[in-house]
Amino acid sequence: MAQQKYSLEEIRLRLNELDDNLLKLFSERRQLSIEVAKSKVETSKPVRDAEREQQLLVKLINAGHDKYHLDAQYITKLFHTIIEDSVLLQQSYLQNLANPELSRKPLARVAFLGAKGSYSHLASREYFSRKNMELIEVNCGHFKEVASTVESGHADYGVLPIENTSSGSINEVYDLLQHTTLYIVGELTLPIEHCLVATNDIRLEDIKVLYSHPQPHQQCSEFLSRLEGVTLKSCASTADAMKKVKELNRNDVAAIGNASSGKLYGLQSLQSQIANQTENHTRFIVVARKPVEVSSQIPAKTTLIMSTTQHAGSLVETLLVLQRYGINMTKLESRPIMGNPWEEMFYVDLEAQLNSEHMQKALAELTKITKHLKVLGCYPSENVKPTQIKL
């Protein structure tokens, strides 16, 4: 048997050195990304250059394979993360130039659903960490309170979940947007990792009561159908559910939540990955009292609401306007108009910059053929799609 060349302690020391070097290189690369953004201000080039990204990835994959014996999947996954970070960093720099008053605010008062550890809380921290802003956290008991807290000026921003890949649209939030004076100024997609948490390591068959927000109940319905004799109880948020389980401190109650959030309440994970879909994501929107200016160099989304006339084909007529101007629609959601039976309000997400010529022409035409139309906001698209390459 060959003698090991290095001791475990020596290997760990070398790994620590390499990790420090990687951190230094990551930092240097980020600084260069900012320099790239500065050069794009002068040239008015868009943040993303698909051809350049493709060439870079192919070059890295080939070099990694030929020189360092690294597989393509490993390199692709690693550099997708690095490219995503670079894109978001450049977008943030350009947005600060377009909205100088925002860049001067180191603190943000943010309203969200639930207590510390709720998914809305996690989304708030993730979104504003990208902006290098410190948070003053404002906990709210329901979605309407989030909106009213921002509308009244007691918070600068509100974070609201709008749709989930498993349970679909969150109708309560869509209905809220129909009446609010707020604007959508940002978005974030957060991976949702549901697990079962309890105060002790109890058996699943001993659980009699299970607490959570109604959305996780829907998103984990297949797992819950296999639990016999369990009563489902709803809470305002997953964080409130975990707090309730901690307070009860019983061996027959559990909650659905996030494992890391559960630790905040002294709970332990009984079973992970209990959602119906392995890839479970929730899209959140960020709302504020004033709209933001979106740099023309940044991929943008525009969200609007509209109601159409009651004649046949009226909705199709509006969609044909979007098609004529080459505007891609990523979401179409209908909700009843309160007080107007059988009438619908349509929510539309568009991949478009509000101030672009084709978007302005489309809005002018839509205004003529709809009963009501309102732009809820134009904001940077922060869902950075992975670079596609052909090997």
Provide a quick synopsis of the model:
Pfam families: CM_2, PDT. By secondary structure, the chain is an alpha/beta fold. It has helices spanning 8-43, 50-68, 72-98, 100-103, 119-129, 143-151, 171-177, 214-219, 221-224, 238-248, 259-264, 314-324, 357-369; strands at residues 107-113, 134-140, 157-164, 168-169, 183-191, 194-198, 209-212, 231-234, 253-258, 268-272, 281-288, 300-308, 328-336, 344-351, 370-380.
Protein model, in words:
- This protein has about 400 residues and is an alpha/beta fold.
- It has four domains: about 20-100, Chorismate Mutase Domain, subunit A, CATH 1.20.59; about 100-190 and about 280-290, 3-Layer(aba) Sandwich (D-Maltodextrin-Binding Protein, domain 2), CATH 3.40.190; about 195-270, Periplasmic binding protein-like II (D-Maltodextrin-Binding Protein, domain 2, 3-Layer(aba) Sandwich); about 300-380, ACT domain (Alpha-Beta Plaits).
- About 40% of the residues lie in helices and about 25% in strands.
- The chain has 13 helices and 15 strands.
- It has helices spanning about 10-45, 50-70, 70-100, 100-105, 120-130, 145-150, 170-175, 215-220, 220-225, 240-250, 260-265, 315-325, 355-370; strands at about 105-115, 135-140, 155-165, 170, 185-190, 195-200, 210, 230-235, 255-260, 270, 280-290, 300-310, 330-335, 345-350, 370-380.
- The strands form three sheets. Strands 1, 2, 3, 4, 5 and 11 form a six-stranded mixed sheet that branches. Strands 8-7-9-6-10 form a five-stranded mixed sheet. A four-stranded antiparallel sheet has the order 13-14-12-15, with helices on both faces.
- Helix 1 crosses helix 3, helix 2 runs antiparallel to helix 3 and helix 12 packs antiparallel against helix 13 (about 355-370).
- The longest helix has about 35 residues, at about 10-45.
- It is globular, with a radius of gyration of 24 Å.
- The two termini are about 40 Å apart.
